[in-house]
C-alpha cells in the first residue's frame, strides 16, 4: 500500500489534475442521440452539447471521459471523476449515492426485437435470452421481470453490443431507454420496439453525494438559462427533429458502405488508432521498466540469507501474482480512491497495476534463476573468502541472468498484451480504441482483426528487439 501511495504521489506531481476549474465528466461511449462519437471521433449528442453549452454559459471547463455507462457511474461514486452525464435516469436508489441536477429529458424502458423474430411481447420470452446494459435501469427492469416471464438476462457494457446480440439472434430481445431506441428505429438501427414505455423517469446530471455542489449548482443555473434562451430546444431539435434523423439515417447507410472495407476503416479511424498505439506503447515501456526494477528487487530479497526479507518477498509474489490483473486494476483505480479520498489518474493506476503484477512474476523467475545456479558455486566462492554480496554479484548473478533472459523476454511480451486489460479503467489504449470504434460502426470482425494485427506487429518488434539485446548480453 505504501508503494502504491508513493508511486501515485510521484506521478501526481506531473499530472495536472484540476487546473483552473476543469471538471472531469464521465459519459457513455454510445448512447445516441445523447452521446456518441461522430466520424471525427468527437463526442456529440444532446448530453455533450448541453454540458458544453452550460460550461460556456457558467464559465468552467470540462474534460469528457467516454468510459461507458457503468464505469462512468462507478468512477463518480469513487470520486475519480467529478460528474456523469450519460442519459442517466434519476432514481430513488441512485439518490442515496448521487446528487442529481434538475431533469433535462424524459424516457422510459422499452423492449426491442429483431423485426423478423416474431416476438411480440414479454409473454414470448420464456426460455430466451434478453440483452441489457450493465448497471442501467433497463437491466434492473429486466431482472425484476425475468422470473415471472422465464427469461435469462445477459449483460453487456455498451448499448451497441446489446443491440448486436439481438440482431445476430443470440438474444431474443433487449430492454433499453425508449428515447434511445426510438431514435435508433428512426435512424436505421434495424430493431423493432414491441412494448409501451415502462418505468418512465427523468434524465439528470449527477455528482457524488455531497461533493461538487458548486458544479451541480452551475449545471442547474446553466440549464435554466439554456431553456430560457431557446438553446435547449435548439439542441433537442438538432438531434431528434425529423430533418436530423432522416439525414442521420442516410449518413449511416452511406458510412456503412464506406466502412465496409479494411482500408476504409483504417483510413477513417487513422487518428484514433494511432493515438491508441502510442498509449499502448507508453504503458508498455513504462511498465516494463518499473516492473523489472521492482521484480529484481523483490527477487533478490527472496534469496538473501534473512528470514524476514525472504518472507516479504514470498508474500509480495504470492499476493500480486495471485490477484487477477483485472481485479487489481479495478481495486487500484476504483477501490483505493474511495478509501483514501484522493484520486489516481487512470494512466498512473494502470502503471501501478502492471508494475505490481508483472513485477511479481519477474521476482519469481529472478528468484528461481538465482536458485537454479548450482549451490556449489556460492559455497566455493564463499570458501575462497568472498563475502555474500560479492559472491552473488560476481559469481552467481552472471550465471543466473543467462537463465533468466528468456523469461524476461516472455514477461515483456505479456506486459504488452496485458495493457489491453487496462481498457476497463477507461485508458484509451489500443483495445479501448477498438471498442469505441466498434461501438460506433458495429464492424466487430474487421476492427478486431485490425487491432489484433497491430498487437502482433508490436509484439514482433518487441521480440526482435529483446532477442537483439539477448545476443549482445550472451556475447
Ligand atoms: N447511458 C445509459 O445507458 C443510461 C440508461 C438508463 N437511462 C439508466 O440511467 O440506467
From TrEMBL:
SUPFAM superfamilies: MetI-like, Periplasmic binding protein-like II. Residues 277-466 form the ABC transmembrane type-1 domain. The chain crosses the membrane at residues 283-304, 316-336, 447-465. GO terms for molecular function: ligand-gated monoatomic ion channel activity. It is a multi-pass membrane protein. InterPro entries: AA_ABC_transptr_permease_3TM, ArtM/GltK/GlnP/TcyL/YhdX-like, Iontro_rcpt_C, MetI-like, MetI-like_sf, Solute-binding_3/MltF_N. This is Glutamine ABC transporter substrate-binding protein. The lineage of its organism: Bacteria, Bacillati, Bacillota, Bacilli, Lactobacillales.
Amino acid at each position: 500500500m505504501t508503494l502504491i501511495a508513493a508511486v501515485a504521489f510521484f506521478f501526481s506531481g506531473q499530472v495536472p489534475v484540476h487546473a483552473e476549474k476543469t471538471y472531469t465528466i464521465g459519459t457513455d461511449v454510445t448512447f445516441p442521440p445523447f452521446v456518441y462519437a461522430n466520424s471525427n471521433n468527437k463526442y456529440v449528442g444532446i448530453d455533450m452539447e448541453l454540458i458544453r453549452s452550460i460550461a460556456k454559459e457558467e464559465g468552467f471547463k470540462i474534460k469528457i471521459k467516454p468510459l461507458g455507462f457503468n464505469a462512468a457511474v462507478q468512477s463518480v461514486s469513487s470520486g475519480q471523476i467529478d460528474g456523469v452525464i450519460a442519459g442517466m435516469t434519476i432514481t430513488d436508489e441512485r439518490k442515496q449515492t448521487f446528487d442529481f441536477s434538475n431533469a433535462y429529458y424524459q424516457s422510459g424502458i422499452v423492449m426491442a426485437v429483431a423485426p423478423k423474430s416474431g416476438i411480440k411481447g414479454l409473454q414470448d420470452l420464456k426460455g430466451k435470452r434478453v440483452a441489457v446494459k450493465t448497471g442501467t435501469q433497463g437491466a434492473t427492469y429486466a431482472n425484476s421481470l425475468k422470473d415471472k416471464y422465464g427469461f435469462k438476462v445477459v449483460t453487456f457494457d455498451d448499448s451497441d453490443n446489446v443491440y448486436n446480440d439481438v440482431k445476430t439472434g443470440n438474444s431474443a430481445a433487449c430492454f433499453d431507454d425508449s428515447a434511445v431506441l426510438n431514435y435508433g428505429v428512426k435512424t436505421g438501427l434495424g430493431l423493432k420496439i414491441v412494448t409501451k414505455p415502462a418505468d418512465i423517469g427523468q434524465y439528470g446530471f449527477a455528482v457524488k453525494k455531497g461533493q461538487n455542489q458548486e458544479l451541480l449548482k452551475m449545471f442547474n443555473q446553466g440549464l435554466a438559462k439554456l431553456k430560457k434562451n431557446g438553446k435547449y430546444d435548439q439542441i433537442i431539435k438538432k438531434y431528434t427533429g425529423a430533418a436530423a434523423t432522416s439525414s442521420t439515417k442516410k449518413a449511416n447507410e452511406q458510412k456503412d458502405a464506406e466502412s465496409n472495407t479494411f482500408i476504409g476503416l483504417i483510413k477513417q479511424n487513422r487518428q484514433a488508432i494511432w493515438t491508441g498505439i502510442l498509449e499502448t506503447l507508453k504503458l508498455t515501456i513504462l511498465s516494463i521498466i518499473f516492473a523489472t526494477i521492482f521484480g529484481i528487487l523483490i527477487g533478490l530479497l527472496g534469496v538473501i540469507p534473512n528470514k524476514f526479507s525472504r518472507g516479504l518477498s514470498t508474500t509480495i509474489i504470492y499476493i500480486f501474482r495471485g490477484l487477477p490483473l483485472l481485479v487489481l486494476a479495478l481495486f487500484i483505480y476504483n477501490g483505493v480512491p474511495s478509501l483514501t479520498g484522493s484520486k489516481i489518474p487512470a494512466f498512473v493506476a494502470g502503471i501501478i497495476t502492471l508494475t505490481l503484477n508483472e513485477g511479481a512474476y519477474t521476482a519469481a523467475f529472478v528468484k528461481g534463476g538465482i536458485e537454479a545456479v548450482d549451490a556449489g558455486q556460492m559455497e566455493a566462492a564463499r570458501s575462497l573468502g568472498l563475502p555474500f554480496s560479492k559472491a552473488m554479484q560476481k559469481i552467481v548473478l552472471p550465471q543466473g541472468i543467462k537463465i533468466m533472459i528468456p523469461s524476461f523476454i516472455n514477461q515483456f511480451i505479456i506486459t504488452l498484451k496485458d495493457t489491453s486489460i487496462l481498457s476497463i479503467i477507461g485508458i484509451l489504449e489500443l483495445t479501448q480504441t477498438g471498442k469505441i470504434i466498434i461501438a460506433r460502426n458495429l464492424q466487430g470482425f474487421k476492427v478486431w482483426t485490425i487491432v489484433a494485427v497491430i498487437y502482433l506487429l508490436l509484439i514482433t518488434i518487441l521480440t526482435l528487439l529483446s532477442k537483439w539485446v539477448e545476443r549482445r548480453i550472451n556475447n
